[in-house]
Amino acid sequence: MKPLVSIITPLYNSEAFIEATINSILSQTYTNWELLLIDDCSTDNTIEITQDFISQNPKIKLLKNKTNSGAAISRNKGITEAKGHFVAFLDADDLWAPNKLEVQVNFMQTNNCDVSFSSYQQMDEEGNPLNKLVKALPKLSYNKYLKTNYIGNLTGMYNVNTLGKITSPNLRKRQDWLLWLSAIKKSGKPALGIQESLAFYRVRANSISSNKMEMLKFNYLVYKKGLGFSTIKSLFYMCVFIWEQFFVKSKLIVSINKK
Asked: Of all helices (H) and strands (E), which one includes residue 19?
């Protein structure tokens, strides 16, 4: 039997996008999955929309936070409840290609891989393609990954059977980066990147990536609070981050028309 994949999706006021996100999971060619939706006290129609799917599909489960707690707490609740051989993540406004799980599970089994990720495409808030591809590095070591976040969380997957359950620290932003750092460190092997584009990331006007100063602040906290580096070491890595992010990683974002 094919291994079970646990998909973790935090929800907060996601009524505009969650239907398309769930449908992209239902369209997967790989069918042995469970979807854990974790609602963080939504005040819109998110719950009502998800209940329609839950009533029709027993593989979809809804968990609820008692208080608004943030994405890290929500993801960790889902990870705790997960029963899968593999854990994957899909935020409530992003989408997967139909073959995403099939390609990635086969890749991980074939390559004896603990952590994998893939290339992905960008789209705007309305779901229109931006004709940009974010290419995955073929191999990503822990030291390379310390320099900047190379893993699109919507593409990442890790092997629970070999690593155990890896959870996120409770930081407001960039907790996914720390989760993948922990997974790669525990593995002792590089994460492997799938070159095929397997997901679609929604670029939103209020996202942290659209605000460069906010991004720098939260990335500093990754080093200072998340990894426990000293102030001097954190500032050093921030200089490394700026170089890596804007002069190295930026070259991995290419026009689809040029690939």
From this structure: helix 18-26
Q: Virtual CA dihedral for 68, 122, 191, 114, nearest 10 degrees?
A: 60
User: Could you tell me if 146 and 234 are in contact, meaning their C-beta atoms sit under 8 angstroms apart?
Assistant: no
Buried/exposed 2-17: b ≥16 CB within 10 Å, e otherwise: ebbbbbbbbbbebbeb
- Beta strand pairing status for 5-11 and 33-39? parallel
Instruction: In whole angstroms, give the CA distance from residue 104 to residue 99.
Output: 8
What's the pLDDT score for residue 259? Answer: 44
Interval 63-87: pLDDT, tens = 999 999 999 999 999 999 999 999 9
3-state secondary structure of 64: strand
Per-residue pLDDT tens digits for 204-236: 876 545 567 778 889 999 999 999 999 999 999
Q: How far apart are CA 113 and CA 121, in angstroms?
A: 23
**CA-CA distance, 193 to 119, in Å (whole number)?**
7
Q: Once rounded to an integer, what is the mean pLDDT over residues 147-151?
A: 97
Average pLDDT over residues 242-258: 90
Nearest-CA neighbor of 5 among 77, 61, 88, 74?
88
Provide the angle, in degrees to the nearest 10, between the axes of the packed helices 231-243 and 212-221: 140
Which pTM does this prediction carry? 0.95
Q: Where are the beta strands (DSSP E) in the chain?
A: 5-11, 33-39, 60-64, 86-89, 95-96, 115-123, 129-134, 139-140, 157-159, 191-202, 253-255
